[in-house]
Specification:
heterodimer, A: mainly alpha, MetI-like fold, two-stranded antiparallel ribbon, 1% strand, globular, B: 251 residues, alpha/beta, four-stranded antiparallel sheet, 10 helices, 10 strands
Chain lengths: 275, 251
């Protein structure tokens, strides 16, 4: 029979090993990707257009497209998500409305991405006639990230102490002024965190983007132009056997992008959070 | 004089439960009125009717009349936002905004339209001086208000009200979260602010009520039991219940 002290040591060892294992898995995966992909990465790779369907050349247009697609998605999803969150927490006195909105948001959050892709294809690409385009892709991505943004924004707003609102109203501010000048700035770190999470998902989304934005190798010049994101390019390179090496390289660039994004955003959030 | 509040036949319900019964009183302008009574007797509820903060809760219904400077506050054409500027409130737990000291005081004037930096700076200084806080913070106006001590924060909250030229200051147990020295400073402040302002203070501290108020109202279970000049109420209460509460037989 083990003494309590011995049990504690055992627990520590087990938990420690699990933690190490987790880190090790991450390290091995990243290490493997880096080993396979780094050799192909150089300035030309990052700044040039692809040649021969991606066998040679670079991935610049795809980096651009990834930014554009995410940009469009955020442009649509952030105002709607944050706006809805404000409405739900600050204005809505109608119980059934808030319950319904929340219910539908949860359903939206659970839909598999390929289903979004199919919906986007039928509705945006064909029915609305946008074709394979930044617009179709951006709209579809917006639908996918909306629940995340709405949920985290709502949580962030709810965390703002009621006493701030009371203090503001007791000075003769309207509810709108209170929300805009006190509540939202206080909730900003939380809202930004939600946006970062959403961007992470959008950047990695492959199936839905392929079905709605297409796979053009040219950089998109307008909203109705087709665009290939980094993740789609990676998929095509790998699956169609064009270049495994370049596929790994693309993967490394994609991961680096996400890491840089998370890093700067976390720094920003930390700077915005008081004390 | 401005700032006189009259209450006529006021009844208030939270849903089905009645919290205030037939309250009738006149709060004179330019004086300090204290509300005393055991927990749950309705002092804070009554206080909150003066600036319609009760509107923020669902299920609150009232009957009767409350007038400020002879205008009935509960008619549809009363601008509640403007009312709350005129009748300001300080809460039990100081609630400075998560901003700098300067921005906290300037918040009120800014939302009412003041943009001129020079004027704002003047207003901030004036308000902080009136609240006896200027000397302590004049060199760190840009620092976060949350870094101030409890007593300083509460004086900041009072300064906020002064910055928007409230006529009436409602204080809901403003010192209960503070240490004795800060409490004393705030009591001095209240003393100084009278007679330019009408002050109504809810307090659990009978000695405090005795020290700073001109008249005192004793409430019990939502009823106004007794209301009169402070020295008389404390030394010669009419009602037995008042006497029992003051002498500590219950509380």
């Amino acid at each position: 029979m083990l003494t309590p002290k011995a049990k504690e040591r055992l627990a520590l060892i087990i938990l420690g090993s699990i933690a190490v294992l987790t880190v090790a898995i991450l390290a091995i995966t990243l290490g493997y990707l880096l080993a396979k992909g780094l050799p192909a990465i150089n300035w030309e790779f990052l700044s040039q257009a692809p040649r021969r369907m991606g066998r040679q050349g670079g991935i610049f247009p795809f980096i651009l497209s990834t930014f554009y697609l995410t940009g469009v998605a955020l442009f649509l999803a952030v105002p709607v998500g944050v706006g809805a969150a404000i409405y739900l927490t600050e204005y809505a006195k109608v119980r059934w409305l808030t319950t319904t909105v929340r219910f539908f948001t949860e359903i939206l959050a659970g839909i598999p991405s390929i289903v979004f892709g199919l919906f986007g294809f039928i509705f945006f690409v064909i029915t609305l006639g946008f074709g394979w385009s930044l617009l179709s892709g951006g709209l579809t991505l917006a639908l996918m990230i909306l629940p995340t943004i709405l949920r985290t924004a709502e949580e962030a707003i709810k965390t703002v102490p009621y006493s701030y609102r009371e203090g503001s109203l007791a000075l003769g501010a309207t509810q709108g002024q209170t929300i805009w000048k006190i509540v939202l700035p206080s909730a900003l770190p939380g809202i930004l965190t939600g946006i970062i999470l959403a961007v992470g998902r959008a950047v990695g989304e492959t199936a839905a983007v392929l079905l709605t934005a297409g796979s053009s190798v040219l950089p998109p010049l307008g909203l109705l132009d087709s665009a290939r994101s980094l993740s789609v390019h990676l998929y095509i390179l790998a699956v169609e056997g064009i270049s495994t090496e370049k596929a790994f390289a693309t993967a490394v660039v994609l991961i680096t992008l996400v890491l840089i994004l998370n890093f700067t955003a976390t720094k920003l959030v930390r700077r915005l959070t008081p004390q | 004089m401005v700032g006189k509040i009259t209450i006529e036949d006021l009844n208030l319900w939270y849903g089905q439960s009645q919290a205030l019964h037939q309250i009738n009183m006149v709060i004179p302008a330019g004086q300090v009125t204290a509300f005393i009574g055991p927990s749950g007797c309705g002092k804070s509820t009554l206080l909150r009717t003066f600036n319609r903060m009760n509107d923020l809760y669902e299920n609150v219904s009232i009957s009767g009349k409350i007038t400020l400077n002879n205008i009935n506050l509960y008619t549809p054409n009363v601008d509640v936002v403007e009312l709350r500027r005129q009748v300001g409130m300080v809460f039990q737990k100081p609630n400075p905004f998560p901003m700098s000291i300067f921005d906290n005081i300037a918040y009120g004037p800014r939302i009412h339209g003041e943009k001129n930096k020079k004027i704002l700076a003047e207003i901030v200084e004036r308000s902080l001086r009136q609240a006896f806080l200027w000397d302590e913070v004049k060199d760190r106006l840009k620092e976060p208000a949350l870094k101030l001590s409890g007593g300083q924060q509460q004086r900041l909250c009072i300064a906020r009200l002064l910055a928007v030229n409230s006529e009436v200051l409602l204080m809901d147990e403003p010192c209960s979260a503070l240490d004795p020295i800060s409490t004393l400073k705030i009591e001095e402040l209240i003393f100084e602010l009278r007679p330019k302002y009408t002050i109504v203070i809810v307090t659990h501290n009978l000695q405090q009520a005795g020290r700073i108020s001109d008249q005192t109202a004793f409430l019990l279970n939502g009823n106004l039991v007794e209301f009169g000049p402070t020295p008389e109420l404390f030394e010669n209460p009419w009602h037995k219940k008042t006497e029992d509460y003051i002498t500590g037989r219950f509380g």
